[in-house]
Structures are given as structure tokens and as C-alpha cells.
């Protein structure tokens, strides 16, 4: 088949079925789980302020971005199947989708950096983790992703026939537009998250023989590992697909079969990356478990209090017996 007559109808028809199979359960689970996560971390924030304020604010911010992605899914399913006559509405939905994606990426990046600094330099960065400063960082993430969504408004160019999330203009795939998005939107956060996560896990494992709070340290390691795994699984295939599509749109890949495979891979990656809004729940689970472990570790148990009382009683008894056997000089 000639590259000029290369058809993607079979790919699009297959994706219509897969999107229904993936997006409907993702929407239902993501809506419920992220609302529960926001409620849960808000409750912890109120009850344990300011002990867990920094982490809770970050987690609530991440859950809000995930919720935004969930709410965009029904519109994406409908708008990507039909031609839309209101480009502004299509652009708004596309903006919400990419804002939620890159908002999640940057939030996870700052969570990893914050955790690494807290583990490596706990005394030096304690003043940097105040609730007010963390809130400012989260607001800055929102401003950054909204500003970064400006190129979305030119995704479809001046074409009259378009579908949402399809038929992107050639300008969208120019090197000066694509590479800043790929580098600053994914590769740089990936490098920061990978470095901070590996260093944090290495430090915590190294402290195993010198800490009495290994249960809490173990919960922290699982939290870091789960966050890193969710990030890589969710966003690495998508940005690899973006790069391959960049090669297609700039004439580096011309064979029709390769183009069809790349289109299928990109759409599959975007489809399954939406499950990230549900996978983040594993991070929430380990964070909450870590909070509970921290409370248990730093709160004396009933058994320890009983043991402490017993030791005090035995000490007092030995002292009293010693005084009876060796009376003080004033009674001799």
C-alpha cells in the first residue's frame, strides 16, 4: 500500500472497542477511589496537623489531578468518535486531559524530591516542608501546566475537518514544540524521580541495622517503589509513542505498516495510561499504611506500659529491701 493511501480505519475501529472496555471501568473506579483518597487525606490533614501536612497536601493535589483526568474521559470517548463543530469545546477537553497528565507527573516528581530531601537531610529541610510552602509549590504546578497547555490551542491548525485527539496539525509535531514537551514534561521528571527514589531506598536499607523503626522504614520503601513503578508503567510508553509519532510526522518513517503500528501503539499507550488514576491508589495505600506505622511506632503500646510499670515496681521493691537490710546511720 502506498504511504499516501495509508489507511488507519482498522486501528481507529479497534481503539473504539478498547476505549469502551478500558475507559468505562477506569472512570467508575477512578471517580470513587480518588474521591475517597481526597476525603481520607483531608481527614488525616485535620487530625494530624501539622505532622503529616506536607505529604497530605501533595497527595490531595495528585488526587485532584487524577480526578480531573477521570472527568475528562467521558468527553474524550464521545468527542474522539465524531467530528466536532465547536473547536473551542474540543480544545478545552484536550487541555483538561493533558493538564491532568502533566500535573500528575510534576506532582509525583515533587513528592519524590521532597521525600528524598526529608530522608537525606531531615534537619536542613524541616523548615522547607511547612504547609504554606508546600501549598505554594502545588499552586505553582497548576500555573505551570496551565501555561504549558497553550500549544494545545494550535493542535488542529486551520483544518475544517477534525476529531478531538486526532488529526493534529503539522505544527504540533515540529521539533521546537515537541522536544521541550518531551524533555521538560517527561525526561527531566523521570530522571529526578529515578534518582530520588533509588537514593531514598538505598539510604533506608542502609539504616536497617541502626534503626528501631524498621517496620516504618519498610513501609516507606514500599511507598517509594510503588510510586516509581506506577510512574514508569503509566508514562514511559506514552512518551515513547509520542517520539515515534514525531518520527512519522517528520518523514523519518514512511512505510505504511510501521505507521499503522505506531498509531496503534500510541493510542494504546494513551488509553492504558489513563489507568494511572487508579494505580495511584496503591501509592495512597502505602502512604496511609506508613502514617499508621509511624503512629504505632511512636506511641507506647499497652504491653510496653505494663512492662515499664513492672520494672519500676521491681526497682522500688529492691530499694526498699536494701534499706531494711542496711538501715541508715541515724537509726543505728
TrEMBL record:
UniProt membrane topology term: Multi-pass membrane protein
Pfam families xrefs: 7tm_1
Any Gene Ontology biological process: positive regulation of Rho protein signal transduction
Q: Where in the cell is it found?
A: Cell membrane
Q: List UniProt keywords, sorted A-Z.
A: Cell membrane, G-protein coupled receptor, Glycoprotein, Membrane, Receptor, Transducer, Transmembrane, Transmembrane helix
GO MF, one term, reads: cannabinoid receptor activity
Q: Which domain of life is it from?
A: Eukaryota
- Transmembrane keyword on record: yes
Residue ranges of the G-protein coupled receptors family 1 profile domain?
A: 33-284
Matches recorded under PANTHER family = G-PROTEIN COUPLED RECEPTOR (PTHR24232), G-PROTEIN COUPLED RECEPTOR 55 (PTHR24232:SF56)
Give the family from UniProt: Belongs to the G-protein coupled receptor 1 family.
UniProt protein name? G-protein coupled receptor 55
Source organism of this protein record: Trichechus manatus latirostris
Amino acid at each position: 500500500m502506498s504511504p499516501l493511501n495509508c489507511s488507519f480505519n482498522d486501528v481507529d475501529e479497534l481503539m473504539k472497542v478498547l476505549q469502551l472496555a478500558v475507559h468505562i471501568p477506569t472512570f467508575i473506579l477512578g471517580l470513587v477511589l480518588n474521591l475517597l483518597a481526597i476525603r481520607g487525606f483531608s481527614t488525616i490533614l485535620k487530625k494530624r496537623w501539622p505532622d503529616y501536612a506536607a505529604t497530605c497536601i501533595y497527595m490531595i493535589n495528585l488526587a485532584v489531578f487524577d480526578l480531573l483526568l477521570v472527568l475528562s474521559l467521558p468527553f474524550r470517548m464521545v468527542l474522539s468518535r465524531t467530528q466536532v463543530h465547536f473547536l473551542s469545546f474540543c480544545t478545552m477537553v484536550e487541555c483538561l486531559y493533558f493538564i491532568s497528565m502533566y500535573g500528575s507527573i510534576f506532582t509525583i516528581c515533587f513528592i519524590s524530591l521532597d521525600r528524598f530531601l526529608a530522608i537525606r537531610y531531615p534537619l536542613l529541610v524541616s523548615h522547607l516542608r511547612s504547609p504554606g510552602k508546600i501549598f505554594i509549590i502545588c499552586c505553582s504546578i497548576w500555573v505551570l501546566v496551565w501555561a504549558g497547555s497553550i500549544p494545545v490551542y494550535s493542535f488542529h491548525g486551520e483544518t475544517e475537518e477534525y476529531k478531538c485527539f486526532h488529526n493534529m496539525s503539522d505544527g504540533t509535531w515540529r521539533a521546537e514544540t515537541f522536544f521541550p514537551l518531551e524533555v521538560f514534561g517527561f525526561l527531566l521528571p523521570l530522571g529526578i524521580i529515578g534518582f530520588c527514589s533509588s537514593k531514598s531506598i538505598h539510604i533506608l536499607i542502609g539504616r536497617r541495622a541502626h534503626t528501631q523503626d524498621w517496620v516504618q522504614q519498610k513501609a516507606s520503601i514500599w511507598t517509594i517503589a510503588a510510586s516509581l513503578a506506577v510512574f514508569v508503567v503509566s508514562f514511559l510508553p506514552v512518551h515513547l509513542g509520542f517520539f515515534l509519532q514525531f518520527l512519522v510526522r517528520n518523514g523519518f518513517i514512511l512505510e505504511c505498516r510501521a505507521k499503522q503500528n505506531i498509531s496503534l501503539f500510541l493510542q494504546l499507550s494513551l488509553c492504558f495510561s489513563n489507568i494511572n488514576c487508579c494505580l495511584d491508589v496503591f501509592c495512597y495505600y502505602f502512604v496511609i499504611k506508613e502514617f499508621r506505622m509511624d503512629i504505632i511506632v511512636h506511641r507506647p503500646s499497652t504491653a510496653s506500659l505494663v512492662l515499664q510499670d513492672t520494672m519500676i515496681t521491681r526497682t522500688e521493691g529492691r530499694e526498699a529491701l536494701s534499706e531494711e537490710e542496711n538501715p541508715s546511720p541515724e537509726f543505728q
